[in-house]
Design brief:
Blueprint lengths: L5 H9 L3 E5 L10 E3 L1 E4 L2 E4 L8 H9 L1 E6 L2 E6 L8 H11 L5 H7 L2 H4 L3
Antiparallel strand pairs: 1-2, 1-5, 3-4, 5-6
Length: 118
């Protein structure tokens, strides 16, 4: 992952939503998709609530490069699936951050399908 400043991490973590786009083979970006983002330590995590079959997630995992926009920050990023991660900490982060939303929205984000698309 790119190095983030503490201020950038704080800004991104505080945002409800993040605009994310993967890079195309020609270097242009796909259309932005709005996703939820959580922070665990100094790492940022996004998931596809539709699982690995989601278009944006498939493209992100094929190309591993893209761009994000959030809270006045716009940066090129690398997409990586976590090697070793505390999935319970990510579950807790989603449930805590998005507690004000109905379980209709939160539960899909902590489902096995979404977990596989972290």
């Amino acid at each position: 992952m790119n190095e983030w400043s503490p201020a950038e991490l704080d800004t991104i973590a505080a945002a409800d939503e993040l605009a994310i786009a993967s890079s195309r083979p020609d270097g242009t970006t796909e259309p932005y998709t709005t996703v939820w983002v959580v922070r665990v330590g100094n790492d940022l995590y996004v998931r596809s609530y539709r699982g690995r079959s989601s278009r944006w997630f498939r493209h992100a995992m094929q190309r591993h490069q893209g761009r994000i926009r959030v809270g006045g920050i716009e940066r090129d990023v690398s997409f990586e699936e976590p090697d070793v991660v505390d999935y319970h900490a990510i579950y807790d982060a989603y449930r805590s951050k998005y507690v004000r939303y109905a379980t209709t929205y939160v539960e899909p984000m902590v489902s096995p399908a979404a977990t596989a698309a972290t």
